[in-house]
């Protein structure tokens, strides 16, 4: 398994829609493993393939944060939201492509998601709480959308300028 570099906003690849995945091959399973390792290393609770510059509909997540609780690594190919609750919930979100920036985002509190798993089997599950927020945030990535796109333009521009500065500093380092 390999830890892959994570793209930092602004980057045109983070604004583009990803392509559907065809057959779930060993190459696809290796990509999912790399993404999980990259996510745990960051550390983060979710990562979408475009964040490592791979324009495919694949996300990984593990929202188990309690000390001592077993991890639940998930990899989803071609995920789609097939139902969303009217009830909304608000979480302070962050993103591995927008380091150290956090903001509250309203999203449906529960969603049903259908996806293809690493064995090529179609799965369906209802997610709630942090898992619901995380899976919606990651599916947004597959559609070229970032959590800051939900914020007011002024706040979004402020965060984007901070990220441009961070990228300049990293390029010099
Ligand atoms: Zn993100």
Written overview of the protein:
The protein starts with 25 loop residues before the first helix and ends with a helix. It has one domain: Peptide deformylase (Peptide Deformylase), CATH 3.90.45. The strands form two sheets. The protein has a five-stranded antiparallel beta sheet. The chain has a two-stranded antiparallel ribbon with strand order 4-5. It is globular, with a radius of gyration of 16 Å. It is built from three helices and seven strands. The protein has 173 residues and is α+β, with helices and mostly antiparallel strands. The structure holds zinc ion. The site of zinc ion has 5 residues, from helix 2. The site of zinc ion (ZN) has 5 residues, from helix 2.
Q: Which distinct ligands sit in these coordinates?
A: zinc ion
Low-confidence stretches: none
Number of strands: 7
| Residues in helix, % | 25-40%
Cα distance spanning the termini: 27 Å
The CATH homology group name: Peptide deformylase
CATH architecture: Alpha-Beta Complex
Instruction: Provide mean pLDDT, rounded.
Output: 97
Q: What is the H/E string?
A: HEEEEEEEHH
CATH class: Alpha Beta
As for the number of domains, it is 1
CATH topology: Peptide Deformylase
Using the alpha-carbon principal axes, give the shape: globular
Number of helices: 3
Main sheet characteristics? 5 strands, antiparallel
Give the class from helix and strand content and strand pairing.
Answer: alpha+beta
What is this entry, summarized?
This protein is of the alpha+beta class and 173 residues long.
């Amino acid at each position: 398994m390999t830890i892959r570099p994570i793209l930092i906003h602004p980057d045109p690849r983070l604004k583009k829609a990803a392509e559907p995945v065809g057959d779930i091959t060993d190459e696809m399973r290796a990509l999912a493993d790399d993404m999980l390792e990259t996510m745990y290393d960051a550390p983060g609770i979710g990562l979408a393939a475009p964040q490592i510059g791979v324009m495919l509909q694949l996300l990984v997540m593990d929202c188990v944060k309690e000390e001592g609780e077993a991890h639940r690594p998930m990899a989803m190919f071609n995920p789609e939201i097939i139902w969303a609750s009217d009830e909304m919930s608000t979480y302070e979100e962050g993103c591995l492509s927008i380091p150290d920036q956090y903001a509250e985002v309203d999203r449906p509190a529960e969603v049903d998601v259908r996806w293809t798993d690493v064995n090529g089997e179609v799965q369906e599950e209802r997610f709630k709480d942090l898992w619901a927020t995380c899976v919606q945030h990651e599916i947004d990535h597959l559609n070229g959308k970032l959590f800051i796109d939900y914020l007011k333009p002024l706040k979004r521009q402020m965060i984007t300028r901070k990220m441009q500065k961070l990228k300049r500093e990293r390029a010099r380092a």
